[in-house]
Amino acid sequence: MIIKKTITHAVLAAAMAVSSVSAFATTFKVAVGDAEGSAQWAMATQFKSLLEAKVGGKHKVDLFPNGQLGGEETTVNSASMGTLDFSVLAINNVTPFSPTVGILTLPYVIQSAAEAKTLVMGEVGKELTENTIRDAGVRIVGWTFTGFRVLTNSKRPVKTLEDLKGLKIRVPKNEIMIASYQAWGINPTPMAWSETFTALQQRVVDGQDNPYITVSSMKFNEVQKYITNIRYVFSLEPIIIGEGTFKKQTPAVQKAILEAGKEASQYSYDYLLKTEDKIRKELTAKGMEITDAANGEKEWIAKATTAVWPKFYDSIGGKAKLDRVQKLLGR
Predict the structure, then answer these.
(1) How many CB atoms are closer than 10 A to CB 14?
(2) What string of DSSP letters covers 247-274?
(3) FRET partner for 167 with CA separation of 20 to 30 A, picked from 11, 13, 203, 277?
(4) Cα–Cα distance, 65 to 42 (Å, whole number)
(5) Is 16 a residue whose pLDDT tops 60?
């Protein structure tokens, strides 16, 4: 009888413990724009692991890759309204909601991975985060470093701007990136990310631009033959959380989110440096042909910077802000 009573109390205590954990447990949903195997996925996976460890099992993190929870722009609205917790997405899809982050997509502002890290992990990144909270109701808590957006197409090698003429190139619905191609002499085709593979497959468009890691993870080698190394935009892809969702968390969980984001950002930077060259070789082995832009991109750079930068001084916060960034980068 005594044994039975002891067992009953033990079972009851265990049940109460489980109930207590369940009462406080939350599963955070994270939308990931790209597929598994992408830089976004690597960053999100690391963020999940870090956050779950830091909160001691009180919260779970579920990842939904390849746009399962909606297009990247849609997830900004969803996070802002509190119907989605986190999203990992390209910075160009945040720009329509918070235009000052467009400074990161001005052509040829960022010229190396180290420069990208200097900007987003320092005072510039902090300022842009404050702006996205103010403008879009979302907070940037970490960054994915995905690399320079290289140009791919299915028709021919492209070295010069003359080679680019006549090609139908998909771009995101981003005014700065559209203006860059217009400066190079063509009118690109703005298109949602979720539609891009099919459009390339069906030859609705001839090409697109994205970093090597994204070209690989999205299997663009199946529908594209040629790559041109250009450096007009370094792809930065933040992980955002709705500010309302963030504010609802306890101070300890807020701290864990920010720490996990910072550590996952460093992981993402290291991941890019470690994997990009390997992926480039793999794409070559799969039949893609890689070409460098002629003359160190001098013509590309000259036309893009002179035609595009002045158009967007106002939206990024003024020419003085761009000058400050340039000075910070030693130029």
Answers:
(1) 10
(2) HHS-HHHHHHHHHHHHHHHHHHHHHHHH
(3) 277
(4) 11
(5) no
Cα(12)–Cα(32) distance, integer angstroms:
41
Cα 157 from Cα 293, distance rounded (Å) = 10
Amino acid code (one letter) for 154? S
pLDDT digits (tens, 9 = 90+) for 41-50: 999 999 999 9
Q: Which of 18-27, 92-101, 301-310 has the lowest mean pLDDT?
A: 18-27
Q: How far is CA 203 from CA 164, 199, 200, 207, in A?
A: 16, 6, 5, 9
The arithmetic mean of pLDDT across residues 252-264, rounded, is 98
The domain covering 26-328 belongs, at the CATH homologous superfamily level, to Bacterial extracellular solute-binding protein, family 7 (3.40.190.170)
For residues 289 and 151, is the Cβ–Cβ distance under 8 A? no
Q: What is the DSSP letter of 318?
A: -
Residue 35 is given by DSSP the state -
Could you give the CA distance from residue 238 to residue 215 in angstroms, rounded to a whole number?
19
Report the residue count for the chain: 331
Edge to edge, the sheet with strand 234-242 lists 59-64, 26-32, 86-88, 234-242, 138-148
Distance CA 232, CA 183 (A): 12
| Backbone φ/ψ region at 108: left (φ over 0), alpha (ψ -120 to 50), beta | left
End-to-end CA distance of the chain: 83
Distance CA 169, CA 166 (A): 9
Does pLDDT of 10 surpass 90? Answer: no
Question: Could you write out the DSSP letters of every residue in 35-100?
Answer: -TTSHHHHHHHHHHHHHHHHTTTSEEEEEE-TTTT--HHHHHHHHHHTS-SEEE--GGGTTTTSGG
Which element (helix H / strand E) includes 7? helix 2-24
* pLDDT tens string 137-153: 999 999 999 999 999 99
Give residue 34's Cα distance to chain centre.
9
Average the pLDDT over each of 23-32, 75-84, 316-325 and give the range with the smallest value. 23-32
* Structure letter (DSSP) for residue 195: G
